[in-house]
Amino acid sequence: MESAVNCVKNDGVSIKRAAEMFAINRNTLINHVKNYKCNAIGRPTVLTRDEEQLIVHALTKLADWGFELDRFQLQICVQDYLRRIDRENPFKNCLPGKNWIAGFEKRWKDQLSRRIAQNLPKNRAEACSVEALKDFHRKLKDTIERNNLESRPQNIFNCDESGFQTDVSIQKFLCRKGSRNPHKVVGSVTKSTYTVLVCCNVIGDYLPLYVNYKGLHLYSNWCQNGPEDAVYNCSPSGWMESSQFANWLENVVIKPQN
Known about the structure:
The chain is built from nine helices and eight strands.
């Protein structure tokens, strides 16, 4: 290659003639004569860097909103885009394969990661809006001041109901790298579910656990091998409803005090 470049630059030999003399590809010789440098390694990508950047931006935004895409959904989106712009590509039916997905994730590993997302029902996702949270804290502050609870932390309780599914399907989705607790908004949680209500006060005293199963009848074997002081119940949805909440107040909150 060096000899061919010297022939062109120093001896006045044409690039075409030098390429024939040294059995070198003409375009390759042109690049060396003109000192063209390519920072990219390997063949050009099907999508430009700007196009891939837009896809990454869309993926991270969707994930922030709770609508993550998995690998196959990303493949379908790219297929639809390639068909719309009618761009020549090496994919069968314009559908990128596993190798393209792997390369895409490697190129954008500083911005994307694959995580298991927790299903979050739509109604609960909407309840986590900024305005809803601000309204909650306003009401909490008013309640504490109205009942003079600042000096009585043992009377301030917080409870949280967590749902558990017995047949969760594990699937990873693309989301923003470094995001904490990614969730996927779903219409509802329809699989077999049971919930556990945990409650404690500000000084760290815990009330007995309240376990609520999905069903119309509470079977005795559902109440075995659990925490010694746990209280059990059931509801059609598996979540706390008004009657279960009243039962919790009566048997967990009030009863121990008596």
